[in-house]
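I'd like us to work through together how a protein chain folds, taking it slowly. To get us started, please write out a protein record for me. Label the sequence line and the structure token line clearly, so we can match residues to local backbone shapes. Once you have written the record down, we can walk along the chain together.
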Amino acid sequence: MPVALWRTGLLLSFLTLCVCLEEECVIGIVGQSISLPCFYPELSPFVNISIEWRRDDEVVLRSVWKEDGNVEICSINRVTVSRDAPVTGNFSLKVPTVDPKEGKIYYNLFIISPGNQSAPLCTVCLRTAGQYQTHRLSSGEHVNELTPLFDWLFTASFSSPLLQREAAQGDKTVFLCHSSGGFPKPAVYWLINDTQTPPEGSVTTLTASLPDSRLYNVTSHLTANISKESSVSCVIENLFMKETLSSTSCE
């Protein structure tokens, strides 16, 4: 049997034993780096290994490991994979900056051989916040149980809330609370003396998206009859990040 065919057959045998990751969700923080996980057994006996990571139909990275030890990597947007991926089995795609404008995008890893293109070996579904679920990738009408699929949830921290007391309206005091640059829309609430909630109808909150971005600014007003001795707190809560930010105004 020709050596090339033997190597190809053995490679395919290795791939059928790929590591199946449990379903999970990957949380990407907007503006920070993240790794899209994809792991396979050690492929060090093989040479001239060629892979492609694709975002939908667009090739974002192509890498070739040659028999002489050279590694050729071509990518867009500075995405990378480890140069020793065939040895470690870690073919994860490293994305330097999470973009909140991705929307719902599928990333797929392929191993390419001359005259033949494999089915996706890893698929990662990038999805903006609001749909937090995980499911298997359907290939036609069949489910490919060897292909892990991830939902990628975009989030971004809000700034520390800016809280200030504004001019009084009659016998009522007005407080303004503002926070910016977060995702998804936050929960906003007020506390008086750390435990009391404001009277019904005393709070008005506006959340607005930033131009050319999915990030949000939030502004909230509290108008109520509050004594000068009372403390007032504004709380911004990002439920997806389990992050709570607050500011307190004391006379």
